Amino acid sequence: QMQLVESGGGLVQPGGSLRLSCAVSGFTLDYYAIGWYRQAPGKERVGLLCISTNDAISYYLNSVKGRFTISRDNAKNTVYLQMNSLKPEDTAVYYCWSTPDYWGQGTQVSVSS
């Protein structure tokens, strides 16, 4: 059974950094693209960026470009989302996603002073 589990969320001050992890099980990460999405309170879930099987990164949301990056460690079956220069508007539940259409349960990120 394919499973994705996010971790690393929490409360951070504006300008701070967090690294989220997405641990996958039930499949070999090497063969799947992984993406990160987020859903802010009262808003729809939006795609942020994804990483392909050959480590190509695609950004879906311009406001995170230059601040967020994604990486994968196939040996650990884990994908990371490094978030820098966080802003209050980054507050959301963050989800990882895998092809064909698997989702984690989400992890809360709150940016506030």
Describe the 3D structure:
With 113 residues, the chain is mainly β. The protein has no helices and eleven strands. The strands form two sheets. Strands 2, 4, 5, 6, 9, 10 and 11 form a seven-stranded mixed sheet that branches. Strands 1-3-8-7 form a four-stranded antiparallel sheet, with no helix packed on it. A hairpin with a 5-residue loop joins strand 5 and strand 6. The chain is globular. The model has no long low-confidence stretch (mean pLDDT 95).
Radius of gyration over alpha carbons? 13 Å
Q: What does the overall shape look like?
A: globular
Main beta sheet strand tally, sense and closure: 7 strands, mixed
DSSP E strands, number = 11
β-sheet strand percentage: over 45%
Quickly count the helices: 0
What is the succession of H and E elements? EEEEEEEEEEE
Keywords:
113 residues; mainly beta; 7-stranded mixed beta sheet; 4-stranded antiparallel beta sheet; 11 strands; 0% helix; globular
